[in-house]
Amino acid sequence: MNTLSELLAILRKRRGLSQYELSTRAGLSERQVSRYETGGAAVMSARSFSGLLATLPETDEEREAMLAALAALAGE
């Protein structure tokens, strides 16, 4: 299973989005997206995760993978 950081980068690239494009669509700053993808952000707000969840996954599998990665992060 991928970490949430890895999964965000994988899905963003799969969609052909730059970090800037993702940030605009998800209602985040480009810096936030970068920090989330590199693991530099220790905490992700529910609002940020909701924006990413509404933007990135195209399939139920991808959505479930994001939720599972978040749950794994919370359990650490």
Q: pLDDT under 50 segments (min length 5)?
A: none
Q: Nearest-angstrom radius of gyration?
A: 11 Å
**What is the straight-line distance between the termini?**
14 Å
Helix content percent band? over 70%
Helical stretch count?
5
Total strand count, please?
0
Strand content: under 5%
Helices and strands, in order, run as HHHHH
Q: Which word captures the global form?
A: globular
Largest sheet: none
Mean pLDDT: 94
Structural class: mainly alpha
Question: Could you list some keywords that capture this structure?
Answer:
71% helix; single chain; 76 residues; mainly alpha
Give structural notes:
- With 76 residues, the chain is mainly alpha-helical.
- 71% of the residues lie in helices and 0% in strands.
- The longest helix has 16 residues, at 60-75.
Short description:
By secondary structure, the protein is mostly helical.
Topology:
Blueprint lengths: L3 H11 L4 H8 L3 H9 L7 H10 L4 H16 L1
